[in-house]
Amino acid sequence: MSVSLRDVLTGEDVFGYIHRVRGSFDSRLYQQILGAANAFKEGDAALGIAAADEVSRANARALLARTKLGAIHAHPPFEDRLHAFMLEGLDGEMLPRLADWSLGQLKHFLLTAPEAEVHAILAGLGSDVIACVVKLMSDAELTSVGARIFHPLPGSKLGAKGYLGARIQPNSPTDHPDDIRWQVFNGWSFAVGDVVLGTNPVSSVPASVAAVESALHDILVTFGLTEVMPHCVLSHIDVQAQVEAEQPGTTGIWFQSLGGNEAANRTFDVTIEKMVRHAAGRTGKFGLYFETGQGADATNGHHHGCDMLIHESRKYGFARALKARVALAQLGAGRTPEPWVHVNDVAGFIGPEVFRTREQLVRCCLEDIVMGKLHGLMIGLDVCSTLHMDVSLDDLGWCQEQVALAGPGYLMALPTRNDPMLSYLTTAFQDHVRLREKFGLKVDDRMWAFFQELGVIDAQGKPTEHFGDPAWVYLQYRRRKGDTRSDAEVLAEAKREMAAVRERSVPLAVGRGARTYDLEPSLETELRALYEDAKAGLWSELSESAVAQLSDGVLLRTCSEDRRDYILHPPSGERLDTESELAVRMLRLRQAGQWDAQIVISDGLDARSLMDEGHLKPFLTELRRELVAAGWHVAPEHVVVKYGRVRAGYQVGELLFGDAEESAPRALVHVIGERPGSGHHAFSAYLSAPSARAWGVQGRVDHDITRLIAGISDTSVRPEAAAREAVRILAELAASARTEPPTVGGSVEARGA
Fold first, then answer.
1. Residue 430: which of 522, 510, 530, 359 has the closest Cα?
2. C-alpha 435: how far from its chain's center?
3. Are 621 and 691 in contact (CB under 8 A)?
4. Which EC class, in a word (predicted)?
5. Alpha-carbon gap, residue 702 to 750, rounded angstroms
6. Are 726 and 707 a contacting pair, CB within 8 Å?
7. Distance from CA of residue 640 to its chain's centroid?
8. Cβ of 506: how many Cβ atoms within 10 Å?
9. Torsion of CA 472, 474, 475, 477, to 10 degrees
10. By three-state DSSP, how is residue 644 classified?
11. Is 25 left (phi over 0), alpha (psi -120 to 50) or beta?
């Protein structure tokens, strides 16, 4: 289904059109017109709100261009408590002054007015208005607006005109502190990394998060940079708060992913009240760090009938309102209100169900840069792609160069374009070097001086003999620690440690190719081999022999027609087909309530992860042993789902365990192949253990009450260790389930699966 708009009259605006064709205001048609005005993306098409053709798109934009800002503000595409909270970030006096502007006038103003005049009206632009004006702009116009508006972080050049910062993303498939340290040293050896040292953890267990926080904090303390840049472990904000409470002073800026509506935020276990409480406690120099991304709301079933741009803009509205709360907290603590708050837009991480091509990726990045800046935010980008998108390693370089012209505050930074833990493609250290050289972009002045002091660049800003040598940075680190060993001894130790990091399948970019920004040739070859391996894994199928090796296998399949349908249309893999639903109901009858734990196995995005030697079998063996030892009654059957995604496991749990009268916990362990790309061929285990009563409410069990162990393989998180950790986590979840209020089965709003 798509939106066809043919009978638009000259001079008509959105609301005039709706009243003429429907006789009164029609909220669904309003949402469809807003969606039809967007540049095409698969995510909008899946919701039935993309334009049917270019004529319809042009007509939708013409209607919007003639619509007044006040009318948009008075007609929210949907309303919830988050929308009301976002209004806190607006200037009540500025709103009526802009109410009679049309969106076309606003677009012209943004393209022509001096930056200071644009800044003066930003507090009067609501998130829906900002989304709508962006719909009217071409890529070139978005680039022009992005290149004219800047919001540098307080006391820095981060996010300033002519500067391109970097978040070093030192991810490790095992959360190994050495992997993380060495990637920081590696980035700094290329004079890259000035915004934040930000690690995505495999484990969100507070002790593990604390260890990574300490490793990052130690680097900044050792080099005297704690007032220059923060560090961050991107676990849930509640975990970061817990670590800070237990180890005061060890956390830096606090992170949280945000959704564009209340329901989407619940998927992240986030509420307005929770975020306001956390913002009220951020009275120091470094405040809050948010991540967003187009498509997350829709793919989690919380689109409210609206397009991705509306939801993305509202995330920035949420961030703007929280930024104001951080400023109030600083003021209340006697500090100058200078909130260090920024946003990282992760564009492309979800996959082809959101958008597929490099042109769409660039469009998304440009839209989000402008929306972030019009909300008064310093915004960076993760210009990224997954292996199942039609965006190659080489395409990413082209995308980066298109986006850099629009003035993003920062980009990600890794040793190569391949993240060793998240298995997706993003920005390498050398990409920063290339973009700096090509466009004359700078690093924050304070960090540039540090890189000169470090000796990786000279007084003229040219690379020295130590450029691209993390061992040299390690030597400076040891010297600042008071290490008096000879250079040769320290460098020999560096060589051994770097080899150990590589043994854990974490690349380090040492040296360079023919040009300053080229990867060293052997590393380039390794990167491309991983890319090809990932493409092969993406299309791998779970073999009949692999299924046959599982005792008491119950083979199911989802609504995906085939592997291609599964990859390109993820919702098809979230629900069982009719025959499989019946099979699970029959299994429930056979089991007759004997078991309180069930193992589900899905092929996921890389079936090889379940078939490689030393992967699934040792995990299952140890898992069953530990579950029994912990008092669980484990069903003998292995439920095997072909073309299964995470929510297909939740459906199995609902069908097996749902019971409105039973309060005891029921555990489901869903083993599923991860995205390929790391070379580990890893799988994950999704762990749920709510009450049978909660299982009985469709959609009640979702990501927000499920825990995850990722990166399980014989070369990353060992299967046996993962199994033991899974049983420990299930014990925690079961204990929580036993304290659920009796009304949980009927009072919780059902979430989209």
1. 510
2. 24
3. no
4. lyase
5. 10
6. no
7. 28
8. 27
9. 130
10. coil
11. beta
3-class secondary-structure state, position 419: coil
The C-alpha atoms of residue 609 and residue 716 are separated, in whole angstroms, by: 12
Give residue for tokens 């046959």: 548
Number of H helices, E strands in the chain: 34, 14
Q: Tokens 């890893």 label which residue?
A: 682
**For residue 94, with 0-12 CB atoms within 10 Å meaning exposed, 13-18 middle and 19 or more buried, which class applies?**
middle
Following CA atoms 567, 570, 574, 577 in sequence, which dihedral angle do they give, to the nearest 10 degrees? -60
Q: What is the pLDDT of residue 742?
A: 54
Tokens of 324: 């104001």
Looking at residue 745, its pLDDT comes to 34
pTM for the whole thing? 0.92
Mind giving me the DSSP string for 371-384?
HHHHTT-EEEEEE-
Name all contacts of 390-397 with Cβ < 8 Å and 24+ positions apart: 390/352, 390/356, 390/357, 390/358, 391/348, 391/356, 391/357, 391/358, 391/361, 391/425, 392/531, 393/417, 393/425, 393/527, 393/528, 393/531, 395/358, 396/358, 396/425, 396/426, 396/427, 396/431, 397/431, 397/434
Q: From its phi and psi, is residue 265 left (phi > 0), alpha (psi between -120 and 50) or beta? A: alpha
What DSSP character marks residue 571? G
What angle is formed at CA 379 by the lines to CA 193 and CA 148, rounded to 5 degrees?
110
Percent helix, strand, coil in the chain, to 5, is 50, 15, 40
The Cα–Cα gap between 643 and 73 comes to: 43
Strands (E), 337-407: 341-347, 378-383
Q: How many CB atoms lie within 10 A of CB 738?
A: 12
Handedness of CA 109, 115, 120, 121 (dihedral sign): positive
Q: How many residues does the chain have?
A: 753
Count of C-beta atoms within a 10 Å radius of residue 424: 23
In the beta sheet, which residues pair with residue 346?
382
Nearest Cα to Cα of residue 434 among 516, 368, 500:
516
Q: How far lies 229's CA from each of 158, 223, 407, in Å? A: 10, 11, 20
Summarize pLDDT for 199-232 with one digit per residue, the tens: 999 888 899 999 999 999 999 999 999 999 999 9
